């Protein structure tokens, strides 16, 4: 929601809307605007239906979130923010099972309020975006992590601190804090942690060992996480289905080789792990259930693509973004070796790859019959010939190819306005989203929009640099209106 009225009017309308929906089971609210800020949810806590099972709010002040928890605790009774000694049994009226909040601060007080009021929670997802370094007595510590143990049914936990361009993190949490968490929440099946720079292999390994049913393990920005954390991963966490290690600079191919022994792995995300090389791709090729692979920023080469191209791995989503040592030849190795990937690949990201040109796009159009989403943003050697090739693929229905639904050519500076004829009807009949930012189309937005979207009102043109599909409002940056 975006504000068009004063905060008072906005809150009144929001309250009226919620009061008119007394049987809601799932509610997600994202509010943005100039006048309406995090205090817009002040009146929400009085209007939430007791039938709610899933609640997601953004943005929210920590203090408002605590008051909201008090609402869940005892219907009609509101405790002071500091009165945590009175956290007794929750109100039986509320059966909330999933809570997701984007806040200004995650603190011990907040965690204690949540666990004291909603011990029946199954999923807890908290993200904060502090503007400045939190005071030591108001940040998250061991106390808050231990309090999570009161939610004995908790199977999914996400704690993320997101601060772009600012070095703000959970500085009071080290390995001991994660030890306490792993002992308190042994039933976790999904863990997502971001912003814990003081936690090392020992802390992360304790989660892998203690949570015996762990299926999803995601760590972001862990500068002390290395291959050692996965030394015994096959013995302790063979149930792993999804592993995401984003921006973990000490992770190398050795960790991937260990993960290659996890036969149930379906998702492997190694984005911005720059020490990943070709040596682990044979192990990746042995993962018969793998459907999603992210090698963005890895040090893989054309030779490594050959291993993937010959394998039977049913990959549907592949990102090679920023892999500067992969060229047109590597894409040929990937797709011209009769591997399973040519039949299954539906989403491909080749953004920011200087070695990619029209030759690679021609290979893709010839080989990838299931492709529905393609990103070639900032591929400076891609020309109008690539757009023509993709358009021709779309028209050859007899070849059994699926139609592209999303295409991103943002900052493909070699494209000319002549490509407009290939982007217009009847080409790309199934396209729903097209990224054209920082191209020669940007200076002719009205003409381009009229030409491309005239007979396709369902098609979204993005000139603002979004990824494949504009953000839905839950990402960090504010979504643009198109």
Automatic annotation (TrEMBL):
Transmembrane segments: none annotated. GO terms for cellular component: SCF ubiquitin ligase complex. GO terms for biological process: SCF-dependent proteasomal ubiquitin-dependent protein catabolic process. Residues 7-471 form the F-box/LRR-repeat protein 15-like leucin rich repeat domain. It comes from the Eukaryota. InterPro entries: FBXL15_LRR, Leu-rich_rpt_Cys-con_subtyp. This is F-box domain.
């Amino acid at each position: 929601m975006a504000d068009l009225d004063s905060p008072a009017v906005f809150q009144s309308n929001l309250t009226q809307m919620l009061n008119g929906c007394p049987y809601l089971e799932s509610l997600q609210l994202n509010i943005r605007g100039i006048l309406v800020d995090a205090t817009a949810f002040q009146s929400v806590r009085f209007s939430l239906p007791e039938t709610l099972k899933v609640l997601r709010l953004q943005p929210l002040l920590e203090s408002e979130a605590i008051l909201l928890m008090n609402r869940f605790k005892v219907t009609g009774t509101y405790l002071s923010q500091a009165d945590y000694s009175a956290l007794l049994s929750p109100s039986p009226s509320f059966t909330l099972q999933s809570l997701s909040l984007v806040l200004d601060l995650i603190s011990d007080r907040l965690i204690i309020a949540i666990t004291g009021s909603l011990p029946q929670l199954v999923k807890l997802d908290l993200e904060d975006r502090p503007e400045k370094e939190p005071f030591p007595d108001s940040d998250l510590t061991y106390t808050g992590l231990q309090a999570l143990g009161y939610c004995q049914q908790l199977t999914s936990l996400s704690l993320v601190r997101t601060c772009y361009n600012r070095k703000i993190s959970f500085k009071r949490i080290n390995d001991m804090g994660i030890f306490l968490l792993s002992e308190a929440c042994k039933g976790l099946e999904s863990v997502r942690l971001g912003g814990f720079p003081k936690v090392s292999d020992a802390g992360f390994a304790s989660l892998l060992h203690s949570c015996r049913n762990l299926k999803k393990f995601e760590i972001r920005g862990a500068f002390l996480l290395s291959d050692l954390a996965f030394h015994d991963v096959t013995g302790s966490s063979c149930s792993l289905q999804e592993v995401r290690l984003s921006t973990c600079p000490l992770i190398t191919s050795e960790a991937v080789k260990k993960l290659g022994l996890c036969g149930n792995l379906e998702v492997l995300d190694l984005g911005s792990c720059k020490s990943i090389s070709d040596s682990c791709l044979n192990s990746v090729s042995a993962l018969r259930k793998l459907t999603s692979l992210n090698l963005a920023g890895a040090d893989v080469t054309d030779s490594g693509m050959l291993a993937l191209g010959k394998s039977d791995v049913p990959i549907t989503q592949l990102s090679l973004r920023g892999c500067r040592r992969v060229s047109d030849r590597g894409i040929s190795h990937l797709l011209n070796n009769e591997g399973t990937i040519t039949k299954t690949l539906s989403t491909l990201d080749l953004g920011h790859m200087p070695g990619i040109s029209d030759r690679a796009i021609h290979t893709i159009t010839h080989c990838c019959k299931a492709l529905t989403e393609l990103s070639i943003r900032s591929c400076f050697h891609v020309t109008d010939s690539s757009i023509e090739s993709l358009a021709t693929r779309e028209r050859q229905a007899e070849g059994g190819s699926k139609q592209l639904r999303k295409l991103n050519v943002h900052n493909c500076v070699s494209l000319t306005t002549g490509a407009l004829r290939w982007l217009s009807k009847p080409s790309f009949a199934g396209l729903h989203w097209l990224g054209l930012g920082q191209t020669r189309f940007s200076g002719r937005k009205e003409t381009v929009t009229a030409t491309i979207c005239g007979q396709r009102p369902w098609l979204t043109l993005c000139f603002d640099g979004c990824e494949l599909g504009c953000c839905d409002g839950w990402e960090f940056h504010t979504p643009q209106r198109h």
